[in-house]
Amino acid sequence: MSTIPSRSLATALFVPEEGDYYQCRICFLRRKQANGTGYTNLVEHLVCYHASTGDDFSRNVYHWLDWIVMENRVLSMCEKIKTRKYTHLKPLSVNTLKNNMFELETVMQASIKTQLERKKMGFAVDAWKKDGTHFVAIIAITSTDKFLLCFSTLPDESDMSADATIDLFDYVLDTYGIDAATQLCFYVCDHASVNVAIARKTSVPMIGCSLAMQALMSDYTDLLEKVHRLMSKLNTIKTRHRLREADALMPTFGNAT
């Protein structure tokens, strides 16, 4: 257990209660831990009573998840012949991996919901396209922490309107028990027309990334124009071919939003 941060152990294995008390999710005993004093009492309880908790199967699933998720591997990696040949981990099917990922998602959502309870926050929102698929990410920003609440596609990818994104916001608010009227204070996003419409329809102030960046870079306007002209000259078929031969980076233009 020493390799896992005390805060992570306390968040995952204890349920906060009134009066600085926490209930163990494993044995349901209550331990007192005053706010601002760390997690010594809670971790001591785990070491004394649950040091051997967690069977071999659970540890095996965790190791597969840690490997595949943290290194952004394909889920089918756990069934590949070469992977199983060169790893000491026990075999695991893709279906078992997926089922445990869904269960872990539920646990993490409950943990984040507890940490966001009654806290003021903003949403950092970003949308982009990769290989023809549109993705949306929503990150909750509090005064002390950041939480990735959603990394998803829209139900109807042909509809990228403000209303479709607002529906996704509603899902996130319901999932994490966030009261938009009292907790959601602002959005941070690109200064695109759809984001402006979202802010207007939901009556939540928007901090446009582009406007803030324009103010920050206002003293470098001439230099940025020179860079833009250079990128335009480099953006030809022959020049890009020579850049590839030299193993150099390709020309990139500034984003309008």
TrEMBL record:
It comes from Phytophthora nicotianae P1976. This is BED-type domain-containing protein.
